[in-house]
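Dataset card, provenance and construction

Sequences and ligand SMILES were collected as paired inputs. For each pair, a complete structure of the chain with the small molecule in place was predicted and serialized as structure tokens. The example below shows a pair involving coenzyme A. Curators did not alter the output after generation; any descriptive sentences attached to a record were derived from the structure itself.
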Amino acid sequence: MNRQIICKPLDPNYIEAAVEMAQENYDLETQSVTALGRFDNRAFYQSKIKKLFENGIGRIAFQNNEPVGFLAFNQIFNTGNGIIGATSPLYGYGIRNENRGKVIGHLFQAAAAEICEKYARSLRINVYAHDTEVLNMYIMGAFSMDTTEVVRNTAVKIPSADKNDFIFAELDKTQVLEYRKDVIELYRNLINHLRVSPIFYHCNGFLPIEDRYEDFLSEDMRIFAVFHNNQLVGMIDSEPTDIEFAKTDSKAIGMGDVFIKSNYRGCGLGAALLAFANNGIRESGIDRVFVTHGTINPTARGFWDKYFVNYAYTMTRQIDPEMLGIIKAI
Ligand SMILES: CC(C)(COP(=O)(O)OP(=O)(O)OC[C@H]1O[C@@H](n2cnc3c(N)ncnc32)[C@H](O)[C@@H]1OP(=O)(O)O)[C@@H](O)C(=O)NCCC(=O)NCCS
């Protein structure tokens, strides 16, 4: 058997093979993360991968003329302010080979050459959290983690101490209006927390804070709150998930922000609020909750990752601008 791996450009004849490999990848992750659930998601993969093959950049790996893997990036993006890049979504790779690290290494080498020839500097790649060989290949290749996607099964209880001095409630929109000032203040604290060391997100996209407040009034968003002495001291929100493969799953929802007033932190209130929200969500027939958070935020990591399971990471790498375009041998 010839062990040589040969990479070729994306070819529509192999869309079905890629769909199968992407599905196998997902199924592999569900073995470690049962909360993800198993669905008939073939139509999702077919439509997404067809688009990737039509408009994207990537490679298919062959061994003995059989496809053993693929890696695909969406069409190169240009934000207009000088950032040109390419993103490989979570459904943008699949490997059918015992040597996953080696196959992804070959695929990335070939795909990255073309991406850099097209002056794309900012690379983003989504990888399953338990795909360790693939993850290692990127980490060793100077990629670093940026965000993670986590999920929990709402049937799993969140351990939390009784908080009898506190009142937990789901707010209706009249109450969100009534507590406008407090909601904005809590949200301001969150943004400030994200702006300072060690996170350093500028959060300009979330400013002015008053505009974000309007989102809390949306009918899609549920707000779970905790009060102490009639004062709002914490909030957590849920809204339809923006995780692509879960959008059509009527039993899935997303959670966005969580914040506890700073002088109330560290004594189990966040956990108690999450437990309250989890129960409320469970009672309305939701089985799965998804959260995306920045791995750069140690508090978010400590909090979300304690109660949820990581199933994906977004890895990023900036290529030296001097190396973009066609590099000629010297
Ligand atoms: C995250 C936050 C809501 C947690 O609320 P809290 O009441 O302090 O949390 P709890 O006391 O219930 O802690 C529950 C678990 O969260 C984790 N956690 C809480 N604070 C943490 C911190 N500063 N660093 C790391 N992990 C932390 C721990 O795993 C903790 O369990 P443990 O005490 O058994 O170790 C609160 O710290 C906060 O509002 N932080 C600022 C905003 C933020 O970072 N939000 C997350 C991003 S959206």
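Derived descriptions for this record:
The chain has two domains: 6-149+314-323, 156-286.
The chain has nine helices and 14 strands.
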